[in-house]
Specification:
This protein is elongated. It has two domains: about 30 residues; about 220 residues, Beta Barrel (Porin), CATH 2.40.160.20. The longest helix is centred in the first third of the chain and has 24 residues. It is built from two helices and eleven strands. The chain is mainly β and about 260 residues long.
Length: about 260
């Protein structure tokens, strides 16, 4: 080898190193597929929640005497259903595990709800129903499209806090000295839905989803009291379901 051939050799080495560096840089910019949709994430979400109280009936229950409902006594009796609705906002945390194009995940969330509705009962009583908060733990099953997009179905157990309050005084001619007006309850049920999520960067994603919830009987007392060891209450017997549409943004730890 002569010194005259060194410039050509040096030039060849520089080109090889430069090409290798460019390849490595490109690999750093493009997140490996195995790193996408894997690991823990946290996020915030907001949307619209609508509750639906159906099959509503007015009932009375006295200790030792059982339940009496007006709907059982009069076939055409209907007190009217309530539909509290409003905004909802909260946060969520989850974990994704990717197997090729399939993503398995688990997600938990808690949300503040502002669902409100007002009704009048028999022309003598006005009452308000509200949805105050909800929480859920849901499994997710997704399919990756184009590395950045994820379509998924989701479902699991859910808890929803609901409340009934009377809006004016009622003279109660009952032997019970301690009368409570209104009621609140945290109902257990199930939610099922679907959504789409898109990775806008290596650590940030946005999502939109729809969820439907079933909570079964959600009986709420209008009046309740105790006297002489007996408990008496007048309440609304009803079934509760919900519809929810919301969007969210999440930060993913590690590779997305």
């Amino acid at each position: 080898m002569t010194f005259r051939s060194c410039p050509a050799l040096v030039a060849g080495l520089l080109l090889s190193v430069s090409a290798g560096a460019m390849t490595a840089q490109a690999a750093d910019v493009a997140v490996p597929a195995s790193d996408l949709w894997n690991g823990f994430y946290v996020g915030a979400q907001a949307g619209y929640l609508q509750g639906s109280y159906s099959n509503s009936d007015l009932c009375q229950n006295i200790t030792g005497e059982g339940r009496i409902c007006l709907g059982d006594m009069e076939n055409n009796f209907n007190i009217g259903d309530s539909s509290p609705d409003g905004v909802t906002a909260g946060g969520y945390v989850g974990y994704n595990y990717r197997i090729e194009s399939v993503v398995l995940g688990l997600e938990g969330d808690w949300n503040w709800d502002n669902g409100q509705d007002s009704k009048s009962l028999l022309g003598e009583l006005s009452y308000d129903t509200s949805l105050n908060w909800d929480a859920a733990i849901r499994a997710r099953l997704g399919y990756v499209l184009d590395e950045r997009a994820l379509l998924y179905v989701t479902g699991g157990p859910s808890w929803l806090n609901t409340e009934l309050s009377t809006s004016f005084n009622i003279n109660v001619n009952a032997p019970a000295p301690n009368v409570k007006k209104g009621d609140s309850s945290t109902e257990f049920g199930w939610v099922l839905g679907a959504g789409a999520e898109y990775a806008i960067t290596e650590h940030l994603s946005v999502k939109a989803e729809y969820l439907h919830g079933w909570y079964g009987d959600a009986d709420l007392d209008i009046l309740s009291g105790t006297s002489g060891g007996e408990t008496e209450k007048i309440y609304i017997k009803q079934d509760l379901q919900t519809n929810l549409v919301r969007a969210g943004v999440a930060y993913h730890f590690g590779g997305l």
